[in-house]
Specification:
The protein is α/β, with parallel strands linked by helices. It contains 7 helices and 7 strands. It has a single domain, classed as Rossmann fold, CATH 3.40.50. A hairpin with a 2-residue loop joins strand 4 and strand 5. Helix 5 packs parallel to helix 7. The chain is elongated, with a radius of gyration of 19 Å.
Length: 229
């Protein structure tokens, strides 16, 4: 269950509301496109640059109580903490594990070609620009839109949990026609499943890396359900 509004620090609440305002329009996959998937010349995978990882510590979140200036400062601190942690432990983008799982499902269910190694693209790259990278085939394009590691709340300052949102689209190359598009939202676990930060980053953040990969796989599962509707 999500935290109640009263449990969220002011800055965390405002950031959560801000990130929920942007959404990816769902575009269902037409039956004709499903039938033609096995005939595709190739399946290319593109990972657009992820949003900044945010890490919310109690100290940084307290800045949110200082008004608008404090809110901006807290937001910057969240991103700085996240970027520092991402670099220090070489944390993987969850979209990578999502792409591997989703591409495998496309091949198994619809006979799509084996996916090519993932290529990187700009975060805001339009569908036409992404698809133009390839001469033919299909393009599976994914992006991590939001990933956040935050302490649970006033009752558990030392325990942290992950919140995630990603999106995917299936494009026709090289035209850029969007054949399918959807998003996934992975809710953070209940309080009893929150984990101490020290455990998450122990052994070169082995457990945190495992959790991030699991987020990507859970996202792929949600996207797969949407694809088949």
């Amino acid at each position: 269950m999500r935290r109640s509004l009263l449990e969220l620090p002011l800055v965390a609440l405002l950031l959560a509301l801000a990130t929920s305002c942007t959404s990816t329009r769902n575009i269902p996959l037409a039956d004709a496109e499903r039938a033609r998937m096995a005939e595709a010349a190739a399946l290319h995978v593109v990972l657009r640059a992820p949003a900044s990882l945010t890490v919310r510590t109690p100290a940084d979140a307290a800045l949110g109580g200082l008004g608008v200036v404090g809110l901006v400062a807290a937001s910057q601190e969240f991103e700085q903490e996240g970027e520092s942690m991402r670099r220090r432990y070489q944390l993987p983008d969850p979209a990578r594990s999502a792409a591997e799982r989703f591409a495998a499902a496309l091949r198994h269910k619809f006979g799509a070609p084996e996916a090519s190694p993932a290529q990187d693209a700009d975060a805001e790259a339009e569908a036409s620009a992404v698809a133009a990278l390839f001469a033919d085939g299909l393009v599976l394009d994914l992006r991590t839109e939001y990933w956040d590691l935050s302490y649970f709340g006033s009752g558990s300052m030392s325990r942290y949990r992950l919140d995630y949102r990603g999106s995917a689209r299936l494009l026709e190359a090289p035209s850029g026609r969007v054949l399918w598009q959807a998003r996934c939202v992975i809710e953070p676990p209940a309080a009893r499943r929150a984990i101490e930060l020290e455990k998450l980053v122990a052994d070169d953040a082995a457990l945190l890396k495992q959790k991030l990969a699991a987020l990507g796989q859970a996202c792929a599962d949600k996207l797969w359900v949407r694809l088949q509707r």
